[in-house]
């Protein structure tokens, strides 16, 4: 497997009236060809900023790429000019957004919005582009694509709009598709349709997908690998089986415990994560999760843990991983299992 | 909860319809004849896709909308015929928690005044107003210092707690929670759900819990009703509903819920529904679900299926069970 996208130690900040908000504070991960990587975390953890940074969609200022690189096929996107990025955006890396209601242009027909990208990147004539656009609408499962081509976004339902967004994103055969909460605004039945469509298209076109979501259920059903983010950092990453069968970071445990299982006993209480994420205007000195962590030790308040390798693919940033904390970790894990 | 079943229902809904007139002569039948009972101390979950009318049901019960026809009786009195003193009493015993914690609190009022508004209106000044508000804040896991702040200073989860405190201020018996956790992060959802369950245990509250997150609904509800295009299609105890769903729509809905366990990924049989929910302005004839139903028959197009008790306490409206 070859890496198509490699994000290395990315830092992104925003300069606001109240100071510098460190939204992304050293994020590293890579995406392999044809695979789906899921980035999970709560709102404000920096997952959307990371994805926008890959596309260079962050307005500078107020944003700033402080440090790090985003290697796409070996080329660093952070250093590219806007003109060079135009050749990447849409053609090589495409994106679909959370809210299909606001991310389509309401004053343009859906067809025109698909054709736009095709003409720009593929040098086709208008008629050829239209043919291709109708083919794309058919591909994403929109019935009677010829008449839909001339309709406006308000004439589409939510699920249909998300399909149209996918058609736009895939019209130029991108190598990487970034899907930022693609199904959050949709009902479960429509969500199932869209996730199925994305999987199906991935199998046919070999696209790599970065799926950004907070829904662990969606992750479990679609992703190959998972990155868990908290307060602008990666706290755990690994293959889907490692993360779900053997999560190692207390934050990942917390996320999993807060959701009721379908067979959960109703008399049992859910175990939420107490408190709220830290303010990234002034991130804490030690581990950002320490204040909400049941198992925090003294060192957690003082020094931020590095991302260390537990096994080949499985990385965790937690002081419990340190060899000196081995006995305590054992106790913690046993305590967790007996509950 | 078997003990509650023998009691008189606290709220009884009989063939309630709520139609809206849209764009001239067209009629949107948001709720088209639904009937159910809610018993004291239980939680009834109401699920369905967006546009199925579940929020309209909640709003019609509490008289934010006037029903087009049908009867809602709360503790034996018809909600839509109450006037004067009795109406005021109803407003006290029935409260609502809204979905969007950002839009449902007045941004220009302090938390103290938001929570105390109901206390003032109903003249419940037994204790000092301030003490009462502080007590309520502590009940929902906030504290004294929060009383003098404005809503924008709070996170979504905290705002939802303020919304709950506001509802509790007038000591209601029955709370309609319209998607109270949909706008919150998972870890915070669990905080709010735990709080709601704790309050129910301590105060014997009755809930109507409207949501589209099926695993959360199963966890919090004693019974669950499934709605589709303005009608209830199935109603049963929540374990029964999830273990043994009868209506094809319920089956599809349950199978579409993603499960956070990759080892089950390939074992599950999924029913993926085709297409979208039809427009409620011009719904299909007969059974409204027939256009998307994998098991539709000829009779489904011509006849509206009857709402029947198939098993004890398990109601369904589907021709497959006639």
UniProtKB/TrEMBL annotation, chain A:
It is found in: Cell membrane. GO terms for biological process: peptide transport. The keyword Membrane applies. GO terms for cellular component: plasma membrane. Keywords: ATP-binding, Cell membrane, Membrane, Nucleotide-binding, Transport. GO terms for molecular function: ATP binding; ATP hydrolysis activity. Its main location: membrane. It is a peripheral membrane protein. Residues 7-256 form the ABC transporter domain. Belongs to the ABC transporter superfamily. PANTHER family: DIPEPTIDE TRANSPORT ATP-BINDING PROTEIN DPPD, OLIGOPEPTIDE TRANSPORT ATP-BINDING PROTEIN APPD. This is Oligopeptide transport system ATP-binding protein. The lineage of its organism: Bacteria, Bacillati, Bacillota, Bacilli, Bacillales.
TrEMBL record, chain B:
Residues 11-254 form the ABC transporter domain. PROSITE patterns: ABC_TRANSPORTER_1, ABC_TRANSPORTER_2. Belongs to the ABC transporter superfamily. The keyword Nucleotide-binding applies. It comes from the Bacteria. GO terms for molecular function: ATP binding; ATP hydrolysis activity. Keywords: ATP-binding, Nucleotide-binding, Transport. InterPro entries: AAA+_ATPase, ABC_transp_ATP-bind, ABC_transporter-like_ATP-bd, ABC_transporter-like_CS, Oligopep_ABC_C, P-loop_NTPase. This is Oligopeptide/dipeptide ABC transporter ATP-binding protein. Coiled coil: none annotated. SUPFAM superfamilies: P-loop containing nucleoside triphosphate hydrolases. The keyword Signal does not apply. SMART domains: AAA. One of its GO terms (biological process) is transmembrane transport. It holds the Pfam family ABC_tran.
């Amino acid at each position: 497997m070859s890496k198509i996208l490699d994000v290395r130690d990315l830092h992104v900040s925003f300069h606001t009236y109240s100071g510098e908000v460190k939204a992304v504070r050293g994020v590293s991960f890579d995406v392999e060809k044809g695979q789906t990587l899921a980035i999970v975390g709560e709102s404000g953890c920096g997952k959307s900023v990371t994805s926008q940074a890959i596309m260079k969609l962050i307005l500078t200022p107020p944003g700033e790429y402080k440090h790090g690189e985003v290697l796409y096929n070996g080329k660093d996107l952070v250093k590219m000019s806007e003109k060079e990025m135009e050749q990447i955006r849409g053609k090589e890396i495409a994106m679909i957004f959370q809210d299909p209601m606001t991310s389509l242009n309401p004053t343009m027909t859906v067809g025109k919005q698909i054709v736009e990208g095709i003409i720009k990147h593929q040098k086709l004539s208008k008629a050829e582009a239209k043919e291709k656009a109708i083919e794309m609408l058919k591909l994403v499962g929109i019935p009677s694509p010829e008449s839909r081509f001339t309709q406006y976004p308000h004439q589409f339902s939510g699920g249909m709009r998300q399909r149209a967004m996918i058609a736009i994103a895939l019209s130029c055969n991108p190598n990487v598709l970034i899907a930022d909460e693609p199904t959050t605004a949709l009902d479960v039945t429509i969500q199932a349709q869209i996730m199925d469509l994305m999987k199906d298209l991935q199998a046919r076109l070999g696209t790599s997908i970065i799926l950004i979501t907070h829904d662990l259920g969606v992750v479990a059903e679609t992703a190959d690998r998972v990155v868990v983010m908290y307060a602008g950092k990666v706290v755990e990453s690994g293959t889907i089986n490692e993360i779900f069968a053997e999560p190692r970071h207390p934050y990942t445990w917390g996320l999993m415990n807060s959701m009721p299982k379908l067979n959960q006993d109703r008399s049992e209480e859910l175990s939420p994560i107490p408190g709220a994420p830290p303010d990234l205007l002034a991130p804490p000195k030690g581990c950002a999760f320490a204040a909400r962590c049941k198992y925090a030790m003294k060192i957690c308040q003082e020094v931020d843990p590095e991302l260390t390798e537990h096994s080949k693919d499985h990385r965790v940033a937690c002081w419990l991983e340190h060899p000196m904390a081995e006995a305590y970790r054992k106790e913690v894990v046993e305590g967790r299992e007996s509950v | 909860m078997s003990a509650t079943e023998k009691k008189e229902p606290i709220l009884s809904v009989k063939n309630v319809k709520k139609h809206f007139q849209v764009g001239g002569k067209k009629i949107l039948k948001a709720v088209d004849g639904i009937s159910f009972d809610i018993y004291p101390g239980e939680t009834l979950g109401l699920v369905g896709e967006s546009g199925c009318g579940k929020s309209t049901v909640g709003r019609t019960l509490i008289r934010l909308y006037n029903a087009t026809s049908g009867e809602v009786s709360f503790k034996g009195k018809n909600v839509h015929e109450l006037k004067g003193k009795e109406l005021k009493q109803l407003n006290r015993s029935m409260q609502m928690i809204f979905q969007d914690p950002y839009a449902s609190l007045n941004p220009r009022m302090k938390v103290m005044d938001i929570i105390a508004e109901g206390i003032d209106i109903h003249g419940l000044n037994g204790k000092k107003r301030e003490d009462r508000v502080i007590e309520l804040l502590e009940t929902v896991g906030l504290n004294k210092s929060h009383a003098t702040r404005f809503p924008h200073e709070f996170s979504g989860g905290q705002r939802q707690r303020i919304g709950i405190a506001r509802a509790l201020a007038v000591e209601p018996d029955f709370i309609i929670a319209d998607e109270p956790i949909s706008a919150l992060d998972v870890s915070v959802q669990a905080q709010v759900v735990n709080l709601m369950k704790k309050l129910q245990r301590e105060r014997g509250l009755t809930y109507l819990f409207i949501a589209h997150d099926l695993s959360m609904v199963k966890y919090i509800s004693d019974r669950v009703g499934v709605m589709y295009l303005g009608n209830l299609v199935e109603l049963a105890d929540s374990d029964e509903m999830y273990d043994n769903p009868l209506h094809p729509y319920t089956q599809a809905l349950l199978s579409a819920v993603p499960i956070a366990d990759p080892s089950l990924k390939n074992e599950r049989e999924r029913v993926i529904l085709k297409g979208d929910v039809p427009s409620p302005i011009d719904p299909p004839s007969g059974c409204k679900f027939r256009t998307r139903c994998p098991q539709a028959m000829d009779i489904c197009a011509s006849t509206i299926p009857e709402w029947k008790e198939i098993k004890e306490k398990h109601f369904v409206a589907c021709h497959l069970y006639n």
